[in-house]
């Protein structure tokens, strides 16, 4: 097949999926989660790093807790900012791709069948596919659980006369006490790790077996699609693959501002 | 010889009312008042008011002490009180009208003492409950709900209901009466519950196994001083004693922050009084003031003695805090009971194995795989896509 100078057999389009700031947020959240897991393992089971000398000379656990709380603060802020950006054009208002609506669940099921069997039709998605969106949604739920349980372990140390101490105490007894909260925090970390492994693997699959360049898209914010795929996306017009694609004119009209052609 | 408080203050010959003060010297008595002020989180300037409140014999509250399903450990703790001493506490600070262990009466005489005490002070006495209430029905023809605990032919739940519903306030001492304790541990064959859960009367809870008598005396002094029960958390535990975790005020906390841990009992760390976190100390999970007031008149407490906290003042601690020498409880799923890390590693291992298998399988089938073909299918027959997918599901996986 005839190929152009970029190694493509047909004209490919660069499609903007999210702003560079959203990409930056992703990697900040990534660093925060890695820091949290590493320091969290130490806090849960202190190993390989111990204080020497007298107690006042060493701050091994205190340091680990400090970095854990710092990374937690970073994660909370950036998850909130990313949640806000999901409603803005910065991320193409992609909140619709993450919320587990019935349409997204059906789409995720079909994609899961496709990725497990490599057979049958599958929809292609410009921003976030419903399977990935569902995975990210579960990760965000896990992160919210971690934030709540983390704060509930942190708040009892606060001043007893403050309202946040009272709120922590109230939630604490509602959720079954510190020990249950601790166990939840620990187990949710493993669930989050489980989801991250699947997430990273799926990105690798989509960057190697497909030409979408998913991993590149979280660094640069752009994906690459053959021109013949444009207009068949499952998400770009808010339609599903089962529905009829829109007329070519409408498609061109709606997609022009978002798509820049690669120079031939 | 020290002067008695009565002599020192020249409060006159009303020795009946001031008998407690005559048997304590002033220094001891004011020391006790200061200690109670400290436990209650009040400043030292409250000590004279506490002294006044204890002097005021007219407000001496009647106490009915119920023994339910328990080991009498909390009575043992109660009679270990030093300031005020046991007899002052029972006869002068309080008027303990019914207490099965320490009263002289027995049998029908005891039963009538209970009735009399309830009749005399209806709506005014403080009911102190010790021990859980079994609510289950024993097997056999004689079984009726709550019959696992039967005293004088009546079930514990009946007695507790009658006594607690007519009381001014109900104070639970010890974890059993607060939250059920060891009797309520899974599988809980007798259906044991805390008093509040069993009879639905709100209670002031002083948990602990046993409870610390400083805390129960402080709660009573709060009642004498202000005429009301102390401020509590959602579970009903007074905040002055259960507002902070043991870990927050632990004398070994410096070693926790320094990263110096006892790895196993008897090692160098244990000899140096290092933190007991890694041998399963539940101090970070337990709301109690042991680390401040200690037990047996400030003699010692578990962490001071070199053993980790087991979280005895927390609800359902026999279930939640086990294993006592591990940090986290086991994860209990249908058919599985394993450590949290074991379950977690299994989960992450399953993800890694699944990913590896999928990658290998995809690589082996790479010739079959053609995304453009799949896309064309979808393009040509979009309407048939769902049924096709459903069909594929059965045949290929």
User: Which second-level CATH architecture of the largest domain in chain B applies?
Assistant: 3-Layer(aba) Sandwich
Number of H- or I-type helical stretches of chain B: 19
Oligomer: heterodimer
Unreliable residue runs of chain A: 237-243, 254-264
Distance between the termini of chain A: 16 Å
Structural class of chain A: mainly alpha
CATH arch. level architecture of the domain at 20-91 in chain A = Up-down Bundle
Helix content of chain B: 40-55%
Which labels suit this protein?
heterodimer; A: mainly alpha; Fumarate Reductase Cytochrome B subunit; 9 helices; disordered C terminus; B: 397 residues; Rossmann fold; Cytochrome-c3 Hydrogenase, Chain A, domain 2; two-stranded antiparallel ribbon
Summarize the topology:
The complex is a heterodimer of chains A (264) and B (397).
Chain A: E1 12-16, H1 20-44, H2 60-85, H3 95-98, H4 102-117, H5 130-154, H6 163-174, H7 177-208, H8 214-220, E2 222-226, H9 248-255, E3 259-261
Antiparallel strand pairs in A: 1-2, 1-3
Helix pairs in contact in A: 1-2, 1-8, 4-5, 5-7
Chain B: H1 5-9, H2 19-23, H3 26-39, H4 47-55, E1 62-67, H5 73-78, H6 86-93, E2 95-99, H7 107-120, E3 126-130, E4 133-134, E5 150-151, E6 154-155, H8 156-165, E7 169-173, H9 175-179, E8 192-193, H10 195-199, E9 204-206, H11 213-226, H12 239-242, H13 253-258, H14 268-271, H15 290-293, H16 317-320, E10 330-333, E11 336-339, H17 340-364, H18 371-380, H19 385-396
Parallel strand pairs in B: 1-2, 1-3, 3-7, 7-9
Antiparallel strand pairs in B: 4-8, 5-6, 10-11
């Amino acid at each position: 097949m005839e190929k152009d100078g970029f190694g493509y057999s047909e004209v490919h389009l660069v499609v903007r999926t999210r702003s560079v700031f959203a990409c930056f947020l992703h990697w900040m959240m990534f660093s925060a989660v890695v820091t949290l897991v590493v320091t969290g393992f130490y806090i849960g089971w202190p190993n390989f790093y111990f204080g020497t000398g007298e107690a006042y000379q060493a701050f091994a656990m205190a340091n680990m807790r400090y970095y854990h709380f710092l990374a937690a603060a970073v994660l909370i802020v950036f998850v909130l900012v990313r949640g806000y950006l999901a409603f803005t054009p910065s991320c193409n208002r992609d909140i619709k791709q993450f919320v587990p609506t019935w349409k997204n669940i059906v789409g995720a099921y079909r994609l899961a069948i496709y990725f497990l069997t490599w057979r049958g039709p599958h929809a292609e998605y410009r921003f976030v596919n419903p399977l990935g969106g569902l995975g990210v949604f579960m990760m965000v739920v896990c992160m919210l659980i971690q934030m709540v349980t983390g704060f509930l372990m942190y708040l009892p140390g606060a001043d007893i006369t403050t309202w946040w101490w009272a709120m922590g105490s109230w939630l604490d007894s509602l959720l079954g006490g510190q020990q249950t909260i601790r166990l939840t925090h620990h187990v949710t970390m493993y669930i989050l790790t489980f989801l991250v492994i699947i997430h990273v693997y799926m990105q690798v699959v989509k960057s190697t077996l497909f030409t979408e360049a998913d991993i590149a898209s979280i660094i640069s914010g752009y994906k690459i699609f053959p021109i013949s795929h444009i207009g068949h996306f499952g998400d770009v017009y808010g339609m599903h693959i089962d529905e009829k694609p829109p007329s070519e004119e409408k498609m061109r009209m709606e997609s022009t501002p978002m798509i820049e052609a690669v120079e031939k | 010889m020290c002067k008695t408080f009565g002599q020192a203050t020249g409060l006159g010959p009303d020795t009946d009312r001031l008998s407690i003060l005559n048997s304590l010297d002033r220094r001891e008595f004011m020391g006790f008042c200061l200690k109670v002020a400290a436990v209650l989180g009040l400043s030292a300037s409250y000590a004279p008011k506490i002294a006044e409140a204890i002097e005021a014999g007219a407000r001496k509250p009647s106490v009915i002490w119920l023994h339910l399903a328990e080991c009498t450990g909390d009575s043992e703790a109660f009679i270990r009180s030093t300031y005020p001493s046991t007899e002052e506490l029972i006869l002068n600070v309080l008027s303990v009208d019914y207490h099965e262990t320490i009263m002289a009466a027995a049998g029908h005489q005891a039963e009538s003492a209970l009735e009399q005490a309830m009749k005399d002070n209806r709506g005014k006495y403080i009911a102190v409950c010790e021990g859980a209430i079994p609510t289950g029905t024993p097997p056999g023809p004689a079984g009726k709900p709550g019959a696992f605990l039967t005293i004088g032919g009546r079930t514990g739940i009946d007695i507790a209901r009658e006594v607690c519903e007519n009381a001014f306030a109900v104070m639970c001492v010890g974890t059993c009466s607060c939250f059920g304790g060891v009797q309520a541990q899974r599988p809980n064959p007798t259906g044991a519950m805390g008093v509040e859960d069993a009879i639905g009367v709100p209670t002031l809870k002083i948990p602990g196994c046993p409870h610390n008598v400083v805390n129960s005396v402080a709660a009573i002094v709060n009642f004498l001083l202000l005429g009301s029960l102390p401020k509590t958390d959602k579970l009903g535990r007074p905040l002055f004693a259960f507002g902070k975790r043991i870990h927050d005020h632990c004398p070994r906390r410096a070693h926790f922050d320094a990263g110096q841990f006892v790895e196993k009992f008897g090692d160098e760390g244990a000899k140096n009084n290092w933190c007991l976190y890694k041998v399963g100390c539940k101090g970070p999970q337990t709301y109690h003031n042991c680390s401040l007031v200690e037990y047996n008149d400030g003699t010692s407490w578990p962490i001071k003695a070199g053993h980790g906290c087991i979280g005895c003042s927390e609800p359902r601690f026999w279930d939640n805090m086990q294993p006592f020498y591990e940090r986290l409880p086991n994860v209990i799923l249908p058919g599985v009971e394993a450590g949290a890390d074991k379950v977690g590693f299994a989960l992450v291992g399953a993800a890694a194995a699944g990913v590896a298998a999928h990658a290998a399988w995809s690589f082996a089938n790479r010739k079959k795989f053609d995304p453009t073909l799949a896309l064309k299918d979808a393009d040509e027959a979009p309407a048939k896509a769902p049924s096709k997918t459903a069909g594929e599901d059965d045949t290929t996986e």
